Amino acid sequence: MGTFKAWVVDKTEGGQSLAFRDFDEADLMDGDVTVRVTHSTLNYKDGLALTGRSPVVRRFPMIPGIDFSGVVEASDHPEYKPGDPVVLTGWGVGETHLGAYAQKARVKGDWLVPLPDGLTPEQAMAVGTAGYTAMLCLMALDAHGVKPADGPALVTGASGGVGSVAVALLARAGWHVIASTGRGDEADYLRGLGASEILDRAELGKPGRPLGKERWAAAIDAVGSTTLANVLSMTKSDGAVAACGLAQGMDLPTSVAPFILRGVSLLGINSVTTPQPKRREAWARIARDLDLGKLDTMTRRVSLEEVGRLGESILDGGVRGRTVVGVA
């Protein structure tokens, strides 16, 4: 046993504190696999944990970071042995279980996924929970039966992590993609990922009618609130919307009109406790269907030491695409 570097959130009288410090391996939580973390990433939820803006962290002290890739150091789990490359997303890591912004992690082996063939550990974290969630959204739309011939697909929050990967995945699957963003200077970036149209988010961000003009057959929404209500109101008959985020809010000020007059379906996406079969299917599809060249164009790289200053940026919309954290 020894120490390793980690970002640690502690509770204070006024809320919480954040420090980059040595952490004792003996204080890691129970688990049957110990992993040497090589890469992590930055998601919206990580920003909430780092800043304390929302009570994401529910145990103190906490190492934040909900995703990691790395190499197994020790294992009592039958599926993993030392040297195996693995990926973890979700399961409360970084919230209730010590997380990824550290050089080591100890977790349940049932939470892990073997690193998919065709992806490096860095690429897996360029995907991270955000890209994995985008794939779950696409899988839900596929299962519902909507297809590119039915009309365009809308992506809200398109320049963010979920949105960027969603644009690339939908475009590669043959969809005419409408990318909604509040950052007009990102139009070229989004077109480079495969967007055919750019929609100003202001058109969706204010209260609208219960039913609007039918504009898209499918949508992936990472924003929620009034934006999601407007997305639903303008979805074509028998279309579907996969909802996976709450950047604008947790409320949903809509009516039953889109559901009972047009047969629109709202598909909820839970990426945290996804069962293993679906989880592995999603990662296999990411490795097969995501254009890794486009993944690279949407990714920036930072060191573990830089993580502490990034929380406010992602919450304020100042982070484009994906951020990979180099740990090793």
Quick recap:
With 328 residues, the protein is α/β, with parallel strands linked by helices. It has helices at 44-51, 121-144, 161-172, 187-193, 202-205, 225-233, 257-261, 276-289, 292-297, 311-315; strands at residues 3-12, 15-24, 33-41, 67-75, 85-89, 104-107, 113-114, 153-155, 177-181, 197-200, 216-221, 235-243, 265-268, 299-303, 322-326. It is globular, with a radius of gyration of 20 Å.
What is the fold's blueprint, element by element?
Blueprint: E1 3-12, E2 15-24, E3 33-41, H1 44-51, E4 67-75, E5 85-89, E6 104-107, E7 113-114, H2 121-144, E8 153-155, H3 161-172, E9 177-181, H4 187-193, E10 197-200, H5 202-205, E11 216-221, H6 225-233, E12 235-243, H7 257-261, E13 265-268, H8 276-289, H9 292-297, E14 299-303, H10 311-315, E15 322-326
Parallel strand pairs: 8-9, 8-11, 9-10, 11-12, 12-13, 14-15
Antiparallel strand pairs: 1-2, 3-4, 3-6, 3-15, 4-5, 5-7
Helix pairs in contact: 2-3, 2-8
